[in-house]
């Protein structure tokens, strides 16, 4: 029995896919712009990134990152708790606190590490976590690292959430209960019913954490996410997010009105036992955060593109996620059909993400298209036409 | 609730969710004998939670392989106020 034998089923599945296509992993041979790349020697439109505001090639962001490398070097080579906290890390934390109007913010090295760092530490053995079933893997992994009891409710199902809150509260009258949901769910692009969830949170005296990874810069008048859009920011105790989507960098954060959040720095293993963000990543994220505030037209353009693609694919008869959003998920009951369409799109010069079970909810396969403010109307039309040819 | 009653209720739930009569013993494996996949497992779990008015932590799901495992877990969660685990 070899150590890799446990992967035999996975290896067989990969072989099947390879026999079908002769290749599976997409390598971006050359990235041309936020919306174009060379893949397999061919120019393709990127319709599967998280580059919602298209800022990866923004002049101000690039200049800020280059200046930071020249001034502060390529890496910090240390933990935030040792030699890895530079003035710029602290400045970004302050700027995020101001942006969200909250008292405390901690910056982590990735969005994944932010969820891991917060959930593994904030929730202790006497506390309870209640997750939306469709929450991101980093949320599940964070609770697993903390070794705490985890319960889940059906995705966006308020009745199920209340039923579980009621049962848990009855059995554990004084326990801290943390509800965890997302602003925009990454698979189907749907929002959480946050106003109703915030109401239940108060009714059952729980805490509420919202992961706004896909909604920062995308939802809310000021781009603060679903909590802002739903008008319930004061009821959301913790917001977690990432710099690797609309902020076009890498890194993550947690922000809260609880000043005690600061204590997590001393207890959170994913915060302490990794090197801090490089100066270039910090500088790019700071520049992008300023742009979110200064250029609201980017969000407008993003939504125009989202409505255009969603509307067109709906017309073509594709089965989509429940509501228009920058994540346009095309659902397939048969994974093989998804594979063929995905490959057909690539042949026609359009890259989208393919998500196969078990990563998908409900055992179906998804082609997860996502739009950017940087897509031109012509590019959105080209993406739609490629889908039309395969409908 | 007595173990026999829990077992009988679990048998009813399995017949409903799997849409066929099932013969089970405490040793019956969900995966090997009943061929329950992860989707069906979630349906069974939801039905169990509703019928017994309990909430099962997902941490224990990996440990539940047989009908007997599930019955013991339900027993634990329905007996008095023993906290959440």
Summarize the model shown.
Chain A has 391 residues and is an alpha/beta fold. Chain A has helices at residues 8-21, 59-72, 87-100, 111-122, 137-146, 158-171, 194-203, 226-229, 264-267, 269-272, 279-294, 297-315, 335-347, 377-390, and strands at residues 30-33, 36-39, 42-46, 104-108, 128-132, 150-153, 177-182, 207-211, 238-242, 252-256, 327-332, 350-351, 353-355, 365-370. Chain A contains 14 helices and 14 strands.
Topology of chain B as a string of helices (H) and strands (E) = HHH
Level-2 CATH architecture of the largest domain in chain A? 3-Layer(aba) Sandwich
CATH architecture of chain B: Orthogonal Bundle
Multimeric status of the protein: heterodimer
**What is the number of independent domains of chain A?**
2
Overall spatial form of chain A: globular
Quote the average pLDDT of chain A: 95
Can you tell me the CATH superfamily of chain B?
ACP-like
Percent in strands of chain B: under 5%
What is the ordering of alpha helices and beta strands of chain A? Answer: HEEEHHEHEHEHEHEHEEHHHHEHEEEH
* Number of beta strands of chain A: 14
Q: Overview of this structure, please?
A:
- The complex is a heterodimer of chains A (391) and B (85).
- Helices cover 41% and strands 17% of the residues of chain A.
- With 391 residues, chain A is an alpha/beta fold.
- Chain B is mainly alpha-helical and 85 residues long.
- The A-B interface holds A 128, 133, 149-152, 154, 163-164, 167-168, 171-172, 175, 358, 362-363 and B 37-39, 42, 46, 50, 53-59, 81, 83-85.
């Amino acid at each position: 029995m070899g150590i890799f034998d446990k992967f035999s089923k996975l290896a067989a599945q990969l072989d099947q896919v390879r026999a079908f296509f002769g290749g599976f992993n997409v390598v971006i041979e050359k990235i041309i712009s936020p919306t174009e790349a060379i893949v397999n020697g061919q120019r393709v439109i990127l319709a599967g990134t998280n580059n919602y505001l298209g800022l990866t090639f923004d002049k101000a962001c690039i200049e800020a990152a280059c200046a930071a490398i020249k001034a502060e070097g390529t890496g910090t080579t240390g933990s935030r708790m040792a030699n890895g906290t530079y003035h710029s890390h602290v400045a970004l934390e302050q700027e995020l606190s101001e942006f969200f109007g909250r008292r405390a913010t901690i910056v982590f090295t990735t969005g994944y590490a932010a969820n891991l760092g917060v959930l593994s530490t904030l929730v202790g053995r006497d506390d309870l976590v209640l997750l939306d079933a469709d929450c991101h893997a980093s949320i599940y992994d964070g609770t697993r690292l903390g070794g705490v009891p985890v319960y889940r409710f059906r995705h966006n199902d308020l009745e199920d959430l209340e039923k579980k809150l009621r049962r848990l509260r009855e059995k554990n009258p004084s326990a801290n209960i943390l509800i965890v949901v997302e602003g925009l769910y990454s698979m189907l692009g749907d929002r959480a019913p946050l106003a109703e969830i915030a109401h239940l949170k108060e009714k059952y005296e729980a805490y509420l954490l919202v992961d706004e990874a896909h909604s920062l810069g995308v939802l809310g008048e000021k781009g603060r996410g679903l909590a802002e859009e739903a008008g319930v920011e004061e009821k959301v105790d913790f917001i977690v997010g990432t710099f690797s989507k609309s902020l076009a960098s890498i890194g993550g954060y947690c922000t809260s009105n609880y000043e005690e959040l600061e204590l997590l720095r001393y207890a959170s293993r994913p915060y302490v036992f990794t090197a801090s963000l490089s100066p270039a990543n910090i500088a790019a994220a700071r520049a992008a955060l300023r742009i979110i505030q200064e250029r609201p037209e980017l969000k407008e353009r993003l939504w125009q593109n989202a409505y255009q693609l969603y509307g067109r694919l709906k017309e073509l008869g594709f089965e989509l996620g429940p509501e228009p959003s920058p994540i346009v998920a095309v659902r397939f009951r048969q994974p093989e059909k998804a594979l063929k369409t995905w490959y057909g799109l690539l042949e026609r010069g359009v890259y989208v993400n393919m998500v196969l079970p078990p990563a998908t909810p409900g055992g179906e396969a998804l082609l997860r298209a996502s739009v950017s403010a940087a897509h031109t109307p012509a590019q959105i039309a080209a993406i739609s036409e490629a889908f039309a040819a395969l409908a | 609730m007595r173990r026999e009653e829990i077992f009988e209720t679990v048998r009813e739930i399995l017949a409903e969710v799997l849409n066929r009569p099932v013969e089970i013993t405490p040793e019956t494996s969900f995966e090997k004998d009943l061929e329950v996949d992860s989707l069906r497992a979630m349906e069974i779990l939801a039905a169990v939670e509703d019928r017994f008015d309990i909430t099962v932590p997902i941490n224990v799901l990996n440990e539940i392989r047989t009908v007997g495992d599930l019955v013991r877990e339900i027993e634990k969660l329905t007996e008095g106020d023993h906290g959440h685990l």
